Amino acid sequence: MTPRALRRRAAPGSPGFLKRSQPRWTERAVKVLLVAAALVSVLTTVGIVVALIPPVVEFFGKVDFGEFITGTDWSPLFEPPHFGVLPLVTATLVVTVIALLVAVPLGLGAAVYLSEYAGHRVRGIFKPVLEVLAGIPTVVYGFFALKAITPFLQRFWPGDDPPEVFNALSAGFVMGIMIIPTIASLAEDSMAAVPRSLRDGAYALGSSRMQVSTRVVFPAALSGIVAAVVLGVSRAIGETMIVAIAAGGRPNLTFDPLEGMQTMTAFIAAAGIGDLPTGSTGYQTIFAVGLLLFAITLVMNLISIRLVRRYREVYE
Q1: Do the beta carbons of residue 239 and residue 265 sit within 8 Å?
Q2: Distance separating the N- and C-terminal Cα atoms of the chain
Q3: From 96, 136, 141, 308, which residue has the greatest number of CB atoms within 10 Å?
Q4: Up-side HSE of residue 269: CA atoms within 13 Å toward CB?
Q5: Per-position b or e across 271-301, b if 16+ CB within 10 A of its CB
Q6: Which of 236, 250, 215, 225 is nearest to 297 (CA)?
Q7: Residue 239's CB: how many other CB atoms inside 10 A?
Q8: pLDDT in tens, the chain (316 residues)
Q9: pTM of the prediction?
Q10: Long-range CB contacts for residues 137-141, cutoff 8 Å, separation at least 24
């Protein structure tokens, strides 16, 4: 193109003339809405903490903090009351560990299959079907554990001491099934984000599909996989209906999953729907246990953020 033609193309009013950028009000409005959405989540978290702190401060004015953290007897609604929260904490950990033993292998296995082995058509069918599990109400999972899994375990248990009617094993197993879609979907998204060039380079060196999946894709997507697992753990710790129905409502300081036990969320649900006078010590235990649960979840998420930043891979 000649210089004369270029001048004509750049003249005002010509098709090639670049006008000064005008204010984009739509883009600014979208930006404001996104900032507002982020602030809602932050303000909600702050509001939860603000709502929990006053009753918790009043509670620890009556109950020794050391007794609360290290005590082994939890019976705040009886006379004489005992406020040792360890039975609730151990029950929560036992059920969560069982759930992870079920969900992590199955969830990551499903993610590897969908990402590296399944075709587009199979992935389009299997992934929505898998995510349907996440939409089932948790109360349905709870009754499934109580009416199906527990009788099955009691009937086919190999030892002489089968699980009790209410037990942590059934609750943890069904909870693991519930969080499989969370882990599988997020982990599969992380694996799918790994550049195709890494896979092609590994295949060019003669690697098998299993070697590419476990030695190339999995390490490259490790930060997203860690985030998926931690999100699954957070959901397992905060689950209420499954443990309230299948694990029982009796505080029990034990690590035996065949026995019934009460988790922190199950206690909050049971005490919250009870007839407790507002402002009483028994009523304030709900907020104390809730703040402890909030602190545990917060610590886990901080650890998750640190791990994600440490193992994060950035590709151009």
Answers
A1: yes
A2: 35
A3: 96
A4: 17
A5: beeeebeeeebbbbbbbbbbbbbeebbeeee
A6: 236
A7: 25
A8: 555 554 545 455 555 544 555 557 888 888 889 999 889 988 988 888 888 888 888 888 888 888 888 888 888 877 788 888 899 999 999 999 999 999 999 999 999 988 888 888 888 888 888 878 778 888 999 999 999 999 999 888 887 788 888 999 999 999 999 999 889 988 988 888 888 888 888 888 888 888 888 888 888 888 888 888 988 888 888 888 899 899 888 888 889 888 889 899 988 888 877 667 777 888 888 889 999 998 888 888 888 788 777 766 655 5
A9: 0.83
A10: 137/241, 138/178, 138/239, 138/240, 138/241, 138/242, 139/241, 139/245, 141/174, 141/175, 141/177, 141/178, 141/241, 141/242
Amino acid present at 87: P
**Tokens standing for residue 248:** 């029982």
Q: Residue type at 269?
A: A
Length of the chain: 316
